[in-house]
Amino acid sequence: MEKLNELTIKQAQDDLKKKEFSSVELTEACLKRIKERNKDINAFITVCEESALEEAKKADEMLGQGIGGPLTGIPFCAKDSISTKNVRSTAAAKILDNYIPPFNATVIEKIRKQGGVLLGKNNCDTFGHGASNENSMYGSVRNPHDLDKVSGGSSGGTAASVADNMCVYGIAEDTGGSIRQPASFCGIAGLRPSYGRNSRYGIMPMASSLDTVGPMAKTVEDTAIIMEQIAGQDSLDATTVSGAVPEYTKILNKSIKGLRVGVPKEYYEAPGMDGEVLEITKLKIKKLEELGCEIVDVSLPHTKYAIAVYYIVVPCEVSSNLGRLDGVRYGVRVETDNLFDLYARSRAQGFHEEVKRRILIGTYALSAGYYDAYYKKAQQVRTLIRQDFDKVFKDVDVLIAPASPFPAFTIGEKVADPMQMYLADVFTTPAGLAGIPGLSVPGGKTKSGLPVGIQIMGPMMGEGVLLNIGSNIC
């Protein structure tokens, strides 16, 4: 018999309605798993055992009265860069070690309001700066499939929690691949929604023009269930789009015969592509063909510039966004005799080295005399990348490619070479720059047992077709 903590949202929903078990029992099973495994995996920075059980009791009362929603009584976790009312939220940075938000992020508010049970906050790369979860100031997150491997970044703690059944699902954030890449490394489903589909209110910003919030789950069906609950316009976030949220769960497992699936050559000719990743991806392409899809070779010529553009645009926005963290208004303060030293020492001790690196790069690129040469030029090329996608989606419905050029790598393998680490997101950053949705689904495993994720990308607000295709090939 499947253990309670191993259930999907759909399975837990059905059994809670039948009173096969209670939300308290489901929550206790997840908390037990966290106690058993978190010491090895390091997926959680904060565990809310007492409040989670209280929330579960209230959820059981709601279920008993026949009220609530699809996520009532279901235990979940959230990336630590997402604000959670009365629960410490550090973004894996020591400068926020004592920060307890007085409000929920909108996506969290929607879940908790209907009786979702928050188990705790997940470890991540500090402020989302990383591709391996080795840049956390609370230690690296380890991959549940092989504890010597990374979990992926920056949402590696959330991915590992879901993959190891410490929770039923998780809410995370994706700027240039922070949901899709760790989902690939840990063998789960992860969706980066279109920019503006979900509210970013209450998300600690890294790069405001790229940041998105999305679900990480055990199945594509669960991903669709979560999206129905958290998506939509928010008066607190002017970037959210108007219009009704599609019923994603009703789109799943529909025929995909006749869909045109683009295979962008740049994603298959990248240097450093792992042979097993390529083989697994081609098998999924073959399956799509068997299901009646038309496979079309396409080109995204400006893809090769995506990493360079990303690592100009993001540091520039980081240098602006992190200016609010100075040791004065909130967070950890290093007491000194003068204001300048207070700023300098609080930030020196509270920021990870990668955060400092990006602030320096961004400040330099935005400085007088360099703005036009770097930031402005990067934004111009970003427009060309977006236009590549706009053009190709006139000819095809979706694109398919690996989520990462390689499976999870060994902890410490790339940490000494930032450029090699940056290339870990080479297949996910283009969609982030263009603002389009991307879904990573489990594609298979290498001979050594490491998961490989397949990335499906679509046009703006095209989450429905991605989820349908994902449900057909998983």
Structure report:
The chain is α/β, with parallel strands linked by helices and 474 residues long. It has one domain (1-474): Amidase signature (AS) domain (Amidase signature (AS) enzymes). 39% of the residues lie in helices and 14% in strands. The protein is built from 16 helices and 13 strands. An 11-stranded mixed sheet has the order 1-3-2-6-8-7-12-13-11-9-10, sandwiched between helices. Strands 4-5 form a two-stranded antiparallel sheet. Strand 12 (438-445) and strand 13 form a beta hairpin. The protein is globular, with a radius of gyration of 21 Å. The model has no long low-confidence stretch (mean pLDDT 96).
Query: Quick one: how many beta strands?
Result: 13
CATH architecture descriptor name: Alpha-Beta Complex
Strand order of the largest sheet: 1-3-2-6-8-7-12-13-11-9-10
Q: Write down the CATH topology.
A: Amidase signature (AS) enzymes
Proportion of residues in extended strands: 5-15%
